[in-house]
Amino acid sequence: MNASPPLLNVTDLQTHFFTAEGVVRAVDGVSFQLREGETLGLVGESGCGKTVTALSILRLIPDPPGKIVGGSIKLGGRELLELTEAQMRKIRGNEISIIFQEPMTSLNPVFTIGNQISEAIILHQGLSKKAAMEKSIDMLRLVAMANPERRVREYPHQLSGGMRQRAMIAMALSCNPKVLLADEPTTALDVTIQAQILDLMLKLKEELGAAIIMITHDLGVVAESAQQIAVMYAGRIVEQGSAKEIFGTPSHPYTQGLLASVPRLDRAHHQPGQRLPEIPGIVPSLYAVPEGCAFHPRCQYVMERCRHDDPSFYSVDSPAGGEEPSNGQHAARCFLLSDSP
Amino acid sequence: MNDAATPARPSSAGASAEESAPLLAVEELRKHFPLRGGIFSKTLGYVYAVDGVSFTVRRGETLGLVGESGCGKTTTGRVILRLIEPTGGRVLFEGTDVFGLGKKEMRALRRDMQIIFQDPYASLNPRMTVGSIVGEPLAIHRLAKGRAREERVAELLLKVGLRPEHMKRYPHEFSGGQRQRIGIARAVALHPKLIIGDEPVSALDVSIQAQVINLLAALQEEFGLSYLIIAHNLSVVRQMCDRIAVMYLGKIVELGSGENVAHDPKHPYTEALLSAVPIPDPTYKKKRLILSGDVPSPINPPSGCYFHPRCPHKRDDCAVEAPALRDLGNGHLVACHYPLNEPGGSTPKSELLA
Predict the structure, then answer these.
(1) What is the set of domains in chain B, with CATH numbers?
(2) Which chain A residues are within 8 Å of B72, Cβ to Cβ?
(3) Does A127 touch chain B (CB under 8 A)?
(4) Residue B4: pLDDT over 60
(5) How far apart are CA A117 and CA A133, in angstroms?
(6) Which residue among A249, B213, B231, B265 sits deepest, i.e. has the most Cβ atoms within 10 Å of its Cβ?
(7) How many CB pairs under 8 A join A and B?
């Protein structure tokens, strides 16, 4: 599983926001690796730090109030956190690109679709305007947009939500990025259109070989698209592993609760009239993250030490280990997995 | 997996006397929005947002109205409450024609019909305290004042899982889930008979969504409420509803029990909707039916069956003749010339959920 060297290596990333009300540790020590051709699902609820993680990788954190205060982000062998802004611009949209949730607000309304796709192509690949426009049409064809020659001259408002998201994907893939960050790429779309876009992303990944970080709150979407999954809570990864492991043997109480609380079409035991299992309480405010394990106030298995000690990662399969598990291994930040709970 | 037979809810059992008189009957409801343009705002055409919709909500029942954006489900809910005036059709609430009522009578009726909105950030007045938001319906209908009102509000807040001391606070001090609870407390304040929930949980986080779904179920049991739940998420509707109506381009294309619609869909559109729902289980590989194209514009709907341009089962006459909604037996209604798994009908293209 760990044969190829990681393409993207994020280690102990710390992104904090310094606000008048205090310091928000939006990302508080996140580590993961992304391999070539792999899709990593970054799952969690609002405020868990999944989007800030993606923006940190692109170094798009608004400063002030935000700042990457620690850790390392390596693309290939290069440390992104040490690059100048000019060097970073050569990476954005070229080696790493991003698809946002809302295609209406992330496309510029006063430029045509073709203009916006060719901008990156001209900038990064040095093509002429005409050649870039040709390539834009090819890209639109690649994302299965009907009538690409016409669409390329249209403005965002003339396209439907699904078509706008296809245009965003075309733009993101136009320079053959090594890493594609997809931040809730299908959340704003209807289910039948979501199915089209997920299907498209899967096909393109196989064709182009880009690695994807799929950021979403939708457990169904990650189950269908990701091989590796990291579950985030209050700025940290609380559980990581392969999709099969996370869904098959969820080991952090938060992951277990999250999976159980989703209404499902395929589960007969969720008959109407039956109550859904729920996680009590609310996601903590990042201004006041609970001491110890951040999940302890909502955890049904809470123990005394969870209230003041911060659990590190424990391997799920060999609980005796206790030390930092190697990457890609199924592990969770929970004392229940330690040999001396 | 269908071993658990359709569970009889306590509320819907013993409803035999009410069977003939549903709480809410919607008949041939229409809402066409005029499209204006040009210098003199001439009417250029109509958006057929709701185009002949009929259904009933029985006492103690939860009916789900599902469909994708633009299918007319929200407009249907608003027209029933007369938040938007109808173009045609009738809405009977306990036998009374809602559209024939005057302003005063309408206000009285609103005691019995309430709404919960999708966005708990936009639907609560930021300048009002939680106490006055929840107490406002009691004030408007002159049901309680002073201490009595305060006590009633405190009781309501406890019912929805908040605390009485929250009364003095403002909406911005609460999380999304808590705000939705405030909206729910306000909706149940007058002991309504029917609550229309317009995407009541879709803006909430997964772990909070389950809490609110359970809260609505508990309130239904306690107060004998009936719900009309408008939502785009089929899994949520399946969890919450006894019966499900599927809308496409302003019309109901299928209506039946949750069990039937989710596991034995008869309309190809329902099949496609179900097939598109991502299942949170990576070992579950299903044969997917992916529809091509977008939902057509309700300004200029296709000929014949509105779904025919995207339908994988279409035959020649589908483009010509619009199918009527007909009963296939046991209250399972479908508007399709060639329903799935029926004699003379179509064979499903996807693997249906067992």
Answers:
(1) 21-278 (3.40.50.300)
(2) none
(3) no
(4) no
(5) 8
(6) B265
(7) 156
